[in-house]
Write a structure and sequence with these properties.
- This protein is of the alpha/beta class.
- The protein has a domain of 223 residues: Periplasmic binding protein-like II (D-Maltodextrin-Binding Protein, domain 2, 3-Layer(aba) Sandwich).
- It has 19 helices and 15 strands.
- The N terminus is likely disordered.
């Protein structure tokens, strides 16, 4: 095997929630049978060599290469392919590296696109392959597993560019935190109903634990503002629908100019001044999970779902508890937040699609990505769960990603001990009962405003993280932000988005 390139850069990470987006636009032992990989390819000729990319939320697992060796055994048998190169980075650095590779025409055969705005950037720039023919010939298992409604989130201009992972396709947002410290300071989840209640909990941590930061996140994470406000971001936040997209008529507005946005910027600035957020938040590269593991961070804002506490407990290495502060809802943008794509610079697009088909259908391959090697990283229990083997725990295991939701079809993943055995039935219900945006299914094409998009993107990168995590004083920074957005052309973008939305509504 060609020597694998290992790329790993420690960077700030957050599993929450959204990347600070440019305008240009996460465990069931009984769920299903193993896919056959029947669309896989022939065994004639040399195996296709694949370069794949996905992000991680914590330090690099020591057994990553050993797991990939086992994955390659399946790929060689069912797709005549093998992974010979990988781009595995922490969240923020992963996004940057993927963008550089796409722009520089470096070999990359398939990768996880982590945000709707990034997805649209890549489509607009012509950096993704149209998957229509590949999906038809080699990806029928994906079509059957995902369903056309959710596949449509990856359709732009009538062509398939992305394949959403099967996971929590709806969200409710809140905080996840260390249970030991919540117990120590009598912080009860059932008593937390609002951000004010959460702030009271952070005040206890700040007073009692001088070496612990109450809130840890990355500059690509959201402090829940948009979810508390209740918006449909319409892919890129440059023109949104308020009230979860359920107003009639649907009016696209400048989210950053709303009273609600100003209120929460001031709210977060107050939290920052109280020390709930690290003073060096914008420049600190420590990973949130690592900070919590070291008891230097208490809580992080995140999207929640059935089984989330168990997932996070496994990653951090001790019990975690969570509380939801937003309503449960879904939008096209949320479905787009984890899509597998094939870039234009892929040298093996057919093999890439065969690999993706297995990633959505083959139980053994999925669980290798999710949990590692059976007997080494996990064992099955008599009741159908999985757990650590004897002598192995969260601190010494060689493989623990906690990212089963990104690897194709999570419904085929085993259930970790501590979760209900029917957790994926719960997840299906979670998706089905969520409130849908009135614009669900609408996909915005920004190709007519590319110049404005690029300019607005620069402004967003300059101000959003600082404002939304309270580092910048809204009294002075918010007017500057809005003025620069206007100069960059956000109003033109909003007008174009409104026009496309109106046409979409008229066609329904």
């Amino acid at each position: 095997m060609k020597k694998m390139r290992f790329v790993s850069i420690l960077a700030s990470v957050f599993c929450a929630l959204f990347l600070l987006n440019a305008c240009s636009g996460g465990p069931s032992g009984q769920s299903g049978t193993s896919g056959s990989g029947s669309s896989a390819g022939t065994k004639t000729g040399d195996p296709a060599e694949l370069t794949i990319g996905f992000y991680i939320n914590s330090s690099m697992p020591t057994d990553m290469d050993a797991v990939l060796d086992e994955i390659n055994k399946i790929l060689l048998e069912k797709a005549n392919a093998k992974i010979t190169d990988k781009v595995v980075l922490n969240y923020g650095n992963y996004l940057e590296q993927i963008t550089l590779m796409l722009s520089g025409n470096e070999k990359l055969d398939t990768f996880l696109c982590r945000q709707s705005s990034n997805f649209m950037q890549y489509v607009t720039r012509g950096q993704l392959l149209e998957m229509d023919d590949l999906l038809k010939e080699y990806g029928q298992g994906i079509v059957d597993a995902v369903g056309q409604d959710f596949l449509n989130a990856g359709v732009v201009g009538g062509h398939q560019y992305g394949l959403t992972s099967i996971r929590d396709l709806a969200k409710e947002y809140g905080f996840t935190m260390l249970k030991s410290y919540a117990d120590k300071y009598d912080i009860k989840m059932e008593d937390i109903k609002s951000m004010d209640d959460m702030g009271a909990a952070f005040a206890k941590i700040k007073a009692g634990e001088p070496n612990m930061t109450p809130i840890v996140a990355s500059t690509g994470a959201s402090p829940l503002m948009e979810y508390l406000i209740g918006i449909d971001a319409l892919t890129d936040y440059c023109g949104v629908l308020m009230n979860y997209g359920n107003d009639d008529p649907m009016k696209v507005v400048n989210y950053f100019a709303t009273d609600e946005y100003a209120y929460w910027c001031n709210y977060m600035h107050d939290w920052y001044q109280k020390g709930y957020i690290a003073e060096d938040f914008l420049t600190n590269n420590d990973q949130p999970h690592d900070l919590m593991r070291a008891h230097r961070g208490f809580a992080m804002p995140t999207g929640l779902k059935p089984g989330f506490d168990t997932q996070e407990s496994n990653v951090v290495g001790e019990p975690m508890v969570s509380v939801a502060l937003s309503e449960r809802y879904t939008t096209t943008s949320l479905v787009q937040t984890a899509q597998w794509c094939i870039p234009h610079n892929s040298t093996e697009p057919e093999a890439a699609m065969k690999f993706l088909n297995l990633l959505f259908t083959d139980e053994k391959l999925i669980n290798l990505f999710d949990w590692g090697i059976e007997g080494k990283h996990y064992v099955k229990t008599a009741d159908g769960h999985i757990t650590y083997p004897e002598g192995v725990n969260s601190e010494n295991t060689g493989y623990s990603l906690g990212l089963g939701w990104i690897f194709g079809n999570q419904y085929l993943s085993y259930v970790w001990e501590g979760d209900d055995i029917d957790v994926y039935d719960q997840l299906k219900e979670f998706n089905q009962t969520a409130m849908k945006s009135g614009a669900f299914g609408f996909v915005y094409d920004n190709s007519k405003v590319k110049t404005e998009v690029a300019a607005v993107n620069n402004v967003l990168n300059e101000y959003r993280a600082g404002l939304e995590f309270g580092v910048l004083d809204p009294e002075t920074a918010l007017p500057e932000f809005l003025s620069k957005l206007e100069t960059a052309g956000i109003d033109k973008i909003i007008a174009e988005k409104q026009s496309q939305l109106d046409a979409w509504l008229a066609s329904k």
